[in-house]
DNA sequence: AGAGATGTGATAATGAATTATCGATATCGG
DNA sequence: CCGATATCGATAATTCATTATCACATCTCT
């Protein structure tokens, strides 16, 4: 999951030529998360691997990782954009109402929608895609009576 | 759908004592829409009934209508908040990828999710609620080859 | 190891949505 | 119909996320 894991052809671009501790910390943080992370979350977690990490560097690096197709942005209702690794296919997300964190659901659990894309609804609406978000309690918070705010 | 339709007990509060053309235009606009509206959309439509309507008045009135429980806010991924009348029960939304407008789906079409709330997923996630959004083409845009941007 | 370009961190600047201000206007009880 | 005042419209101010700036540190190639 370190340097050797990064495709040099993609990593190295006109604006992204050097491998630094900050960039690896940020990419590893996003890859190791259980779900999409916001900029503040990335900053907080990656700072443990890269002490003194600046917020501007997180914004810069996230933008570069988007441009080099290492990560993708995920938007949730009423929230700042979150980011997750690219290439995980169609899936849905789960938000824990207790610890407020987002989780990625397995593909097998994801496609819960009874009406597949391409269907025409009775009213004439043609469905081309869907977003499903589940809300509830993550395994940790569902077990604990007094849940903390520090999930995986 | 006019003045007589408004519960005076709810309409009249410490900060909302008078009935004005602007307030009725805004509430009627939200009630007559096919789906949730954003602030700019409310402003554009209500201005037809209340010429010269100011944007600040839309913000003010929407906030008051929220506080008096005449409307509710609906958030969509990556968008400004939208507003719809209160009391329409559980339903889902449809966004037309052609004209970019939101539609409210009938209740009978809404509950498309195969896993009902209260279910415990195999991983231990307890589902308490869900949001489903469908994307595609509204009846008007599905019919027209060159769709306009002025839906119902 | 050294030169030079790239990357970083702190912070100022920007941009967009929302809110506050204030003189003018319209509402509604009397 | 009048007067007190709630509300309006125009715009300045505020808030918050994101971006630009710049001096200093770090990486890479030789």
UniProtKB/TrEMBL annotation, chains A, B:
Binding site for Zn(2+): 96, 99, 138, 141
Cofactor note: Binds 1 Mn(2+) or Fe(2+) ion per subunit. Binds 1 zinc ion per subunit.
Keywords, ordered alphabetically: DNA-binding, Iron, Metal-binding, Repressor, Transcription, Transcription regulation, Zinc
UniProt cross-references to Pfam families, sorted A to Z: FUR
Residues the entry annotates as binding Fe cation: 90, 130
Required cofactor(s): Mn(2+); Fe(2+); Zn(2+)
A Gene Ontology BP annotation from the UniProt entry: negative regulation of DNA-templated transcription
CDD domains: Fur_like (cd07153)
GO molecular function, one term: zinc ion binding
Family, as annotated: Belongs to the Fur family.
Database matches in PANTHER family: HYDROGEN PEROXIDE SENSITIVE REPRESSOR, ZINC UPTAKE REGULATION PROTEIN
Stated name of the protein: Ferric uptake regulation protein FUR
Species for this entry: uncultured Thermomicrobiales bacterium
């Amino acid at each position: 999951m370190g340097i050797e894991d990064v495709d040099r052809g993609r990593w190295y671009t006109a604006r992204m030529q050097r491998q630094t501790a900050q960039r690896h910390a940020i990419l590893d943080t996003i890859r190791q998360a259980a779900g999409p992370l916001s900029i503040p979350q990335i900053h907080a977690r990656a700072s443990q691997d890269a002490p003194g990490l600046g917020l501007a560097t997180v914004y810069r690096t996230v933008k570069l990782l988007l441009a080099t197709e290492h990560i993708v942005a995920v938007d949730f209702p009423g929230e700042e954009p979150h980011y997750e690794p690219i290439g995980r296919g169609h899936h849905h997300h789960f938000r824990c109402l207790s610890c407020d964190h987002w989780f990625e659901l397995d593909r097998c659990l994801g496609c819960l929608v009874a009406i597949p894309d391409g269907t025409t609804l009775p009213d004439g609406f043609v469905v081309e895609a869907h977003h499903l978000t589940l809300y509830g309690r993550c395994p940790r918070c569902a077990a604990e009576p007094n849940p903390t705010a520090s999930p995986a």
